[in-house]
Amino acid sequence: MQARLIVFKMILLAAVISAMLYQTAFAAPTDEVYFSVKAVIPSNQIDTRKTYFDLKMEPDAKQTLIVNVYNNSQQPLKVKVGVQAASTNQGGLIDYSTAKTPDASLKTPLSAIATLQATELTIPAAGSAPVKVDLTMPHDQFDGIILGGIVVTKSAPEENKAATTSGVAINNTYSYVVGVQLRETDTVVKPVLHLKSVHTALVNHHTTLVASVQNSEAAIVQNLTFSAQLFKGTDTTALKSMTKESVSMAPNSVYDFPFDWGASPIQAGDYRMHIKATSGTDAWEWDQNFTVGSVDAKNLNATDVTTQQTATNNETVMLYVLGGILLLLIVAIIVFSVAKRRKNEEV
Known about the structure:
Elements: H1 2-26, E1 35-39, E2 53-56, E3 62-71, E4 77-85, E5 87-88, E6 94-95, H2 110-113, E7 114-116, E8 120-123, E9 128-136, E10 146-155, E11 162-163, E12 169-170, E13 173-183, E14 193-203, E15 206-215, E16 221-232, E17 240-249, E18 253-260, E19 269-279, E20 282-292, H3 294-303, H4 305-346
Parallel strand pairs: 2-13
Antiparallel strand pairs: 1-3, 3-9, 4-8, 4-10, 5-6, 7-9, 10-13, 11-12, 14-15, 15-18, 16-17, 16-19, 19-20
């Protein structure tokens, strides 16, 4: 009887698992994007093998860029369109879609010379529609490149919004970016990097030293390697060190190089950071003194998840230690009481 019951339970479990797998395999997709984009490459494209705009134009020249948006669903599709100047994100990658305040060295961001004919489009079911961007090149001739992107975004449908435990709705969005690279001359511009500052910040809930490095020229920097050493006060032995490879920087942008402090609490005091950046035969090197204030250190340690977890673990260990000591005392008291009672009985 027991063997039959076990076999029956195994068959029932297999049936449940099969039903779950079938439901997963044939469930209707809820997060598919259902649209795509394609640039219409014009005759003044420098490299026709590229799928983004790589154009050479004259000062004051006007041109309309076209990006076709294709709706692969059976329902009309609404999209929003934007134009962004390229920037450098904290991951060390060129970002074509994030709206950021342009660096002071960027004289002409793409958004200043590109005008959208429409910022919203409705794409018919199983059809397409063109995004049109009117370009007017700067009056004064420039060397180097203007870099940015045309961003086409579709918001997730209302039913796909997910609520967090705090009751805040999260709306997933899907975007495509078509890069735009513009130049007027063939003059090669060399990048120039400057260390602007070193400061503390909380990055992804972790205490971080951020070295802000500026590329002040209209040139892309590729295959950058950053190596940094941190010194406490006038010490000559490095307190911490780290390396970041394969960094790319957009023209006239700032890269916030993150130097993770680690698990230990940060201490207030004077520090020095030595940074070296290399790209091919180009190299830059800086020494920067900075101070971490007591209030800043206290606030960072109070909000750093690693520090808080370490403190929690230390408290847990201490509780276990105290609990163990208390248990030993109780056992000792019991043993002493039993021994005393037996001695009294013998007397």
